[in-house]
C-alpha cells in the first residue's frame, strides 16, 4: 500500500482546494523613494522599473495603486544634500510629503523609514555615538508623527532606538503611532541596488559593526524580543529570502505581526532573470508565496505594483 498524492494535483481547481498558502493584496507594502522638489521622476539604474519621485509626481502612480488595492506604503526620503538636521525639520520634504499623501489618500497606511544613512555625509546610519544617534532618530520619528505618519520603521540597527522612539512618541501624545522595527536586519550584500537608489552607501567601511552577522539566528530572536520589549508592535526581518528560517522562527515565537522585506538585490536578481528569459515570470509569485509560507504576515516588496495588478482581495 502507498498513499496517492497525485489526485490532489490533477487540475487547477483541485490544486486550489488543497492549497495552503495564498498571497493577497493586503499582504503587500510598497517601498517608495521620495526626493525633494517638483516634477521629478527619476529612473534608478540599479533597480529596473523602480523610480524616485517628488511628491507631486508620486500622487498619480500612488492613486493607481490604491485603486488596485494598495493598503500600505513605506517611504524613504532621499535628500539632495547631506545634513542630519533636515531629517527632522517640520517643513522637510518627507514631512510635507506625508501630509500631502495623507490628505490625498486618507485610507492608505503610511509607514516612514527612520534612519540617517541618506543624510550623513559618510553614508552611515549613525553619527558615531549610539545613544546620541537614538535621540536624533526619536526626533525624526516624532517629526513624522506630527506630519501624520501612521507607523515609523527604524532601520538603523542602533541599540535601544525603539526605546528612545517609543518614549518620544508617548511623551508627545503620539502613543498610537505604530513602531515597525527592523528588528533583525542583517549586514547583507542584497542591499546593493538600494544604496544607489537612496544614495546611502557607506563612503568607507561597511555596516558590519551594527547590522547582524548573516550566520546568526538565535541572536535575531534576541533582537526581536528586545525590540518588542522596548515597544515595537510589529517587526521586520530583512532580507527575506536567505533568512526564511528566521521568519519561521520569529512567527512561531512572537505574537506580533512579522514582516519580511524582499529587498532590492532580491528584486533586481529576479527582475533581470525574468526579463532576460532565464526563468519564467511565474517565479515572482512562487518566491513571494514562499515568504508567506515561511510565516511572514506581510511582505515589503518592489514587486507590489505588479502583484496588485494580478492578485485577488
Ligand atoms: C538603510 C536601509 C537599507 C535598506 C533599507 N534601509 C540599506 C542598508 O542598510 O544599507 C535596504 C533595502 C533594500 O535593499 O531594498 N537604513
Describe this structure in words.
- It is a single chain.
- By secondary structure, the protein is an alpha/beta fold.
- The protein has one domain: Aldolase class I (TIM Barrel), CATH 3.20.20.70.
- It has eleven helices and ten strands.
- The protein has helices at 12-17, 55-67, 93-104, 130-147, 161-171, 192-197, 218-230, 244-253, 264-275, 282-294, 304-310, and strands spanning 28-35, 41-43, 51-54, 72-77, 109-114, 151-154, 178-185, 234-238, 258-262, 298-301.
- The longest helix has 18 residues, at 130-147.
- It is globular.
- The mean pLDDT is 97.
- It binds ligand PBG.
Question: Top keywords for this entry?
Answer:
about 325 residues; alpha/beta; TIM Barrel; eight-stranded parallel beta barrel; 11 helices; 10 strands; binds ligand PBG
- The average pLDDT score comes to 97
Q: What's the Cα radius of gyration?
A: 20 Å
CATH class: Alpha Beta
What is the CATH topology assignment?
TIM Barrel
What portion of residues belong to β-strands?
A: 15-25%
At CATH level 2, the architecture is Alpha-Beta Barrel
Give the tally of structural domains.
1
The CATH superfamily appears as: Aldolase class I
Bound molecules: ligand PBG
Strand element count: 10
Estimate percent helicity. Answer: 25-40%
- Rough outline: globular
Question: How would a textbook summarize the main sheet?
Answer: 8 strands, parallel, barrel
- Write out the strand line-up for the largest beta sheet, numbering strands in chain order: 1-4-5-6-7-8-9-10
Helix count?
11
Low-confidence stretches: none
Distance between the termini: 42 Å
Strand pairing plus helix content: what structural class? alpha/beta
Following the backbone from N to C, one meets helices and strands in this order, namely HEEEHEHEHEHEHHEHEHHEH
Amino acid at each position: 500500500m502507498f498513499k496517492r498524492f497525485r489526485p490532489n494535483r490533477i487540475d487547477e481547481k483541485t490544486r486550489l482546494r488543497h492549497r495552503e498558502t495564498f498571497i493577497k493584496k493586503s499582504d503587500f507594502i510598497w517601498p517608495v523613494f521620495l526626493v525633494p522638489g517638483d516634477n521629478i521622476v527619476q529612473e534608478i539604474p540599479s533597480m529596473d522599473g523602480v523610480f524616485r519621485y517628488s511628491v507631486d509626481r508620486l500622487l498619480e502612480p500612488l492613486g493607481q495603486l490604491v485603486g488596485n488595492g494598495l493598503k500600505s506604503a513605506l517611504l524613504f526620503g532621499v535628500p539632495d544634500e547631506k545634513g542630519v538636521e533636515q531629517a527632522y525639520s517640520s517643513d522637510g520634504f518627507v514631512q510635507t510629503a506625508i501630509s500631502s499623501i495623507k490628505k490625498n489618500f486618507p485610507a492608505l497606511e503610511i509607514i516612514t523609514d527612520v534612519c540617517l544613512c541618506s543624510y550623513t555625509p559618510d553614508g552611515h546610519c549613525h553619527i558615531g555615538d549610539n545613544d546620541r544617534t537614538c535621540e536624533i532618530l526619536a526626533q525624526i520619528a516624532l517629526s513624522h508623527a506630527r506630519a501624520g505618519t501612521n507607523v515609523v520603521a527604524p532601520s538603523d540597527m542602533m541599540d535601544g532606538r525603539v526605546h528612545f522612539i517609543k518614549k518620544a512618541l508617548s511623551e508627545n501624545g503620539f502613543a498610537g503611532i505604530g513602531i515597525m522595527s527592523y528588528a533583525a536586519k542583517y549586514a547583507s550584500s542584497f542591499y546593493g541596488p538600494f544604496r544607489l537608489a537612496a544614495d546611502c552607501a557607506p563612503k568607507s567601511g561597511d555596516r558590519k559593526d551594527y547590522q547582524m552577522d548573516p550566520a546568526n539566528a538565535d541572536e535575531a530572536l534576541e533582537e526581536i524580543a528586545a525590540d518588542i520589549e522596548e515597544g515595537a508592535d510589529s517587526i521586520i526581518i530583512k532580507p527575506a529570502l536567505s533568512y526564511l528560517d528566521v521568519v519561521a522562527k520569529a512567527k512561531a515565537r512572537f505574537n506580533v505581526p512579522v514582516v519580511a522585506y524582499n529587498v532590492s538585490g532580491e528584486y533586481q536578481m529576479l527582475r533581470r532573470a525574468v526579463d532576460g528569459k532565464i526563468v519564467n515570470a511565474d517565479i515572482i509569485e512562487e518566491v513571494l508565496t514562499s515568504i508567506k509560507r515561511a510565516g511572514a504576515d506581510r511582505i515589503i516588496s518592489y514587486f507590489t505594483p505588479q502583484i496588485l495588478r494580478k492578485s485577488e482581495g
